[in-house]
Amino acid sequence: MVRARAGEGSVPGARSDPYRLALAIEGGGSRGTYSSGMAVELERRGLVQVFDDVYGSSMGAITGAWLLSGKAEHGSSFWWHPEVLPNVIRPRAALRRKPVVDLEFLMNEVYQQWAGLDFAGVLADPVRLHPVATDADTGKAADLAPHLSDAESLKLALRGSAGLPLLAGPLVSLGGRRLLDGGLTEAIPFHTALRHGCTHVLVLRTRRADERAQSPARVEDLAVRAFLRRTAPATLGAWRTRPERRRADDERLAGGGPLAQVLVPPGAPEVSRLAVDPALLRRAFDLGTAAMATALDIGR
């Protein structure tokens, strides 16, 4: 479908087919360098307008915003900029009771002031962005697209979608909802796309093809559970069942049909969600672009 739409110059609102094609971008903190590379390859080939919607969870929502701004390749370069991630991801900040992951700095200083992300342009694109977050008071996935009206609401939505429990500071509120990381409920946001009537979904993954879902380390598990009990008890069930749901998602995506995925190749380096090493992140980005290129060229 991607090839057919690209071949005929199909654009949103003027399709010759009856389908609704979504792009879904997995979250994962710094692992998002992999899917960022995949998205950049789509941009390089002029394929963004073949999609009708872009769904992103956590860092995947931020990658989706850059893609719809028309400057995904420019935005990706800030992954390995020496002044960016070390000032966004600051483990020692916990000692001062400050956010370990400073998403407000990322949005307002890095993306708006330094990088010039065109938030208004993202909202004006006919391909609609759907940042997926977790509603802290219901424990369910929340599509924030209906709440996007201007640059400020988009920045809040992206911060809410990427709001890692315990690490990102106070919860963001938007549209009367308190928000947590979309990865709690829908790390791979194809479920929301299907519920919204998308007939086909291309999923950009941040996990390796040979990587199995693992339970969190005991220390992390206990700390996050304590945080959620105090802050968002309705989300405890989502936290407990994440590994099982991720394994179920892996099986479903492997089944093909209307779902296709681009995976990080086996043997690719491990990238933690809080990684800041510029060389590692650039390597992950390059492997992501190569994986997307391979997927697009298969069968030509």
Order of helices and strands: HEHEHHHHHEEHEEHHEHHHEH
Give me the Rg, rounded: 18 Å
Average pLDDT taken over every residue: 95
Distance between the termini: 13 Å
Give the number of DSSP strands.
8
Major β-sheet profile: 8 strands, mixed
User: How would you sum up the global shape?
Assistant: globular
Helix coverage percent of residues?
40-55%
Oligomeric state of the chains present here: single chain
Number of separate structural domains: 1
Strand content: 5-15%
Tally of helical segments = 14
CATH topology label = Cytosolic phospholipase A2 catalytic domain
Low-confidence stretches: none
What does this structure look like?
β5 and β6 form a beta hairpin. It contains 14 helices and eight strands. Strands 1, 2, 3, 4, 5, 6, 7 and 8 form an eight-stranded mixed sheet that branches. The chain has a single domain, classed as Cytosolic phospholipase A2 catalytic domain. It is α/β, with parallel strands linked by helices and 300 residues long. The protein is globular. It starts with a helix and ends with a helix. InterPro entries: Acyl_Trfase/lysoPLipase, NTE, PNPLA_dom. This is Patatin family protein. One of its GO terms (biological process) is lipid catabolic process. Keywords: Hydrolase, Lipid degradation, Lipid metabolism. It comes from Amycolatopsis acidiphila.
Helices, strands, pairings?
Elements: H1 2-8, E1 21-25, H2 32-44, E2 53-57, H3 59-69, H4 72-76, H5 85-88, H6 103-114, H7 119-124, E3 128-135, E4 141-143, H8 151-161, E5 172-174, E6 177-180, H9 183-186, H10 190-195, E7 200-208, H11 218-231, H12 236-240, H13 242-254, E8 259-264, H14 278-297
Parallel strand pairs: 1-2, 1-7, 2-3, 7-8
Antiparallel strand pairs: 3-4, 3-6, 5-6
